[in-house]
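Fold this complex.
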Amino acid sequence: MDAPVAQQGKIQQPKLGFVGYARFFWRQLTSMRTALFLLLLLAVAAIPGSLVPQISSDPNGVIAYRRNNPDSAAILDFFQVFNTFTSVWFSAIYLLLFISLVGCVLPRTKHHFDALRARPPKTPARLSRLEGFTTRTTKADAATVVESARRLLRSQRYRTEIYGDSVSAERGYLRETGNLVFHSALVGVLLAVGLGGGFGYTGQRVVVEGYAFSNSLASYDSFNPGRFFTDDALEPFTIALDSFKPIYEQSNRKAIGQAVDYTAYVTTTMKGESAQTARIKVNEPLSVGGTNAYLLGNGYAPVLTVRDAEDNVVWSQPTACLPFDANLGSTCVIKIPDGLDQQIGMLGFLYPTTGTLNSGALVSVYPDLVAPTLTLEVYQGDLGLDNGQGTNAYALNTDSLQQIAGRTSDAETVRLNPGDRVDLPNGLGSVELASIPRFVSLDVHHDPSQLPVLIFAILVVAGLVTSLFVPRRRMWVSARTDKSGTTTIEYAALARGDDPNLETAVSEFADKHSQQLTVRVDS
Amino acid sequence: MTETFVSYSLIAVYSAMAIYTLAFVMFAIDLARRSAESSDAAAAASTGLSSASVRATTVMAASAARSSSAGTTTLTADDAPRTATDAVRATSPKYLRLAMALTVIAWVLHVSAVVFRGVAANRVPWANMFEFTLTATALIVGVFLVVQFWQDLRFLGSFIVGFALLALGVGTSSFYVDVVPLPPALQSAWLVIHVFVASLSTGFFALAAGLSIVQLMQARREAGKAVKLRFLDTLPPAERLETLAYRLTVVGFVMWTFTLIAGAVWAERAWGRYWGWDTKEVWTFIIWTIFAGYIHARATRGWRGSRSAWLAIVGFAAIVFNFTVVNLFFKGLHAYSGL
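Structure:
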């Protein structure tokens, strides 16, 4: 029979300890000092996220960093620095901060709720010790004085309560309300971002002039679903790019060729509805259903037609080229796995307006399509597409390829102007530059958190402004009539929180009040 | 036509800088004069006069000076200078008044430089780092001048004018770029609102940082430590400085909050997401957090006073860092320096 007792003791002891500790930690966590520490820690913890490229905002920067500094990248990976803002340590700080905040706001809300229903406190015995203390005298009797003071205070939106020959008043409850709204709205922002963002998605898609894409998983070049995303969230619509019209600066000699406007003219079709034309600009996304399409990039997508030795077309489609300079000099990668005797890979450079450097190298001197040239280095061999592994469409791995036209081979680099057709070496066939349409890269975003976040953000500002600038103060007016019938009125106030105009407020009130009394007594 | 206005703008800004330099010298002389006169008062006290009598005489001198200079001023009990050193301030603000007059003249030229630049570019003059420096410094000095109607903070003149002069010097020599059209990403009404409010808030934070620096020095002096800067005797006590710094900071903080939200709204339009931890967004957040910390510090036991003052200074330093180092050396979407 000893065992249960011992067990009981064992169970009870740590249980008490746990509650004790929990209470202790809760007190610590919700103390102002801890909240302040966490707040400042959060500021410091955000710094690495600006020093090191982030996977979310700069994935290419992360890749480059890993390539250049593999050793330190391993350490940074361990500490999740490439994902600073979703890392365990950053999340721990802001979650603790928000728990601390909630732990502070809840009791304060209750306290404030009680205060809203309570009457203003009793008038202190010695008003002369308080701020803005001032006196006036009048011939009116104490009851009249107190009643008129109460009316005046009420008209100034004070809550009042009469205690004997004095009136106690308080105003500015909105200050605390604002404070609570501000902090609650911050929690709201966090929740909206965390929950609402999970139902959204973002997808990127390159669209060439004359082509369309539909809002389905398969058609995106890259796609980032939120945590709670399901395929149902994809609204059925298509966007066709009719044309893309950039405008480049032509008159300002300091900025020739600088883009001054981009407009994508599109046709959208919702399922079961008729097609509609629309336009997308950089600061003017297109809203389709509950989804927005943003114009984030553009470039050229030359259409190459490749024929085999018997003149059969084996390839004819646009290839989006990645711009590498401001004049849209671009690199193009074309992979032709089927149709020819060998797999062919082509590495191209597109110069929309071709110029020649002193070294003889080509360069683009203007972003518009004035005198375009496409150069192609041609490779044959194994493109590495057949092993089932995904490859980067914008890069050509030449490890198992042999150059058959270009700097390191017998045949010269292929050079094409629009309409040109050139035979490929080794009797493989021919390649023709059919046309050079433009492409745009569209980001399609669906983010249900947007509206709630905006509403909470507005509440944050509204709460902040009221909590900082609405003065909360108590004011007292007390009257005492002496034997000669003269009533001395005492005025004083107490600031609750920063209140720069307290003393002025008291003296102005006293002036106004005594003036009212004088008028009344005179008449 | 553009080039004509650009050159007007440059002439105006260089003239403004010349006059700011003169104003800076006058502000510095004023501080030196405060130091000297405060030493005189101390010397008088040590030669046998009780400090009370020094106070009395200087107060009388002060009231005489005030009523003669201001004409209609009547001293009431509340209004009387509380210390001998307050009186020193009132006796001969010749250099100070000269410094303020020069600052006003320089500021008018400075603002006209901003306006000319805007006319030359046919858009708001804050679309690259040079223009931003030009406009933000004009706003900082503008806030300094306007705040004088609320509180006498002229003693911060050397700090503010010195800061503006330094920023304009770096801006005109290192950040200068020609007028070029706005890239499509900046063609938005939010450029007007977001950037303007951000620069205006720096004006408030700059003043608050200046006050906090003086507050720290004053706190050292009040703690009885040896501080060589005698002009501190003539400045408000640390607690008063803290209150003033706080009131300016909260105004700046509200504007910074707005900047952050307006930036998020604009980012949603231009980049497709309202928040993406772009380097500039990170630093805007860091600065917001520091000042939120400052406001809370005042309500936290053990943090009032010097510790919170340090936060205001660190916050302003972070703003300067955000504008210079982050703009020039950090990779991000806010790549509009034009350099």
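Chain B touches chain A through 56 residues (CB under 8 Å).
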